[in-house]
Each structure stands twice: as C-alpha cells, then as structure tokens.
Design a protein that fits this description.
Pfam family, one: 7tm_4
Protein name: G-protein coupled receptors family 1 profile domain-containing protein
Largest sheet: 3 strands, antiparallel
Strand order of the largest sheet: 1-4-5
Organism: Ursus americanus
CATH architecture: Up-down Bundle
Radius of gyration: 23 Å
Subcellular location: Membrane
Helix content: 55-70%
Distance between the termini: 18 Å
Family: Belongs to the G-protein coupled receptor 1 family.
Order of helices and strands: EEHHEHHHEE
Strand content: 5-15%
CATH superfamily: Rhodopsin 7-helix transmembrane proteins
Number of helices: 5
Length: about 190
Amino acid sequence: MGLDPALPALNRTVLGPGPFVLLGVLGLEALHTWLSVPVCLLYVAAVTGNGLLLGLVAADETLRAPMYQLLGLLAAADLVLATSTVPKALAVLWGLSREISFAACLAQLFVTHVTFIAESSVLLAMAVDRYVAICQPLRYGALLTQRVVAIVAVAAVARGACVMVPPVALLQRLNVWKEGGIPKLL
C-alpha cells in the first residue's frame, strides 16, 4: 500500500520525525567558538585522564584488586559518556553540523542514559566494596573476586539496557499523522 501522490502532503504518514536542528547556546551564538575552547579542553582532559586510569589498571598487576577494577569501570563509563555527547556538541559550537537525525538522536539518548544508569550501579558496587572491606576485612578476598566485579559490570550494563530499551523502542515506533496541521500520535 503506497502513498497516493494525489493526496496532500499534510495527510501523509511520516515514519519518524525529520532531523533535529541544534542551535547551540541561544543568545550567545557569536561566542560559540569561544565556548568551544573550554568544552574541548575538558573533553581532552576527560579522555586523557580516564584513558590513563584504564591503562594503569590494565597494565599494573598490583591494581588487580576489586576496588581498582571498579574505579576502572567508573572511568570507562565516564569515557563512554563523554565520547557519546561532547563531539556532537563541539560540532555544533564550531558550526560544522547543525542537525542530528532522529536515529542518531535516539542512539545518543540510549548510550547516554545506559551509561548514567551503569555508572550509578558501579557507584553502588563501590559502596558495597568499601562496606565489605570495613565490616568483613578477613573475608574481603573471598567475597569480592574478579568474577564478582565482572558480574557487576555485566549487571550494570544490563540494568541500564533493560531500563532504556522500552522507551527507545517506543520512540522509534513513533508515527506522526498530520491532519490539518495538527500532529496526532498513532
């Protein structure tokens, strides 16, 4: 069942919103280049610092304790979070790209929110780690192993995905029917 070209454009089904126009910081358009400098420097600092931390945790045998591995997970979450949002913001501030497609927006939304949720799970695991280290110091090595840290990492990402898959799937199925200029959700 194709679209009838004789129908007016307002009566056609659109399979998703078109691209979104990103404006940057409203009222400060003339300063976008200057605003991009601290954003870029902070991004470079975040990528460098978190990359170094991940490299140290991976390379040094003495940093194989669960506490350091959890710090590595936190650094990885921060790295993913920064990398999923800042490059597009810099592209807007530099005037290289003013649009984002609906699919790219959904992907960015999904990755950002899954990372936030995973980061909160890792922070909870770090609190439990310190609790066990203080309250059960003799059993710490037996309770918190590398396997437990791996399970925490998988559970953190799975928790974030379970929370974010339904809204993103529903948003992806969003159809807008325009009748007389009034959008209706199907």
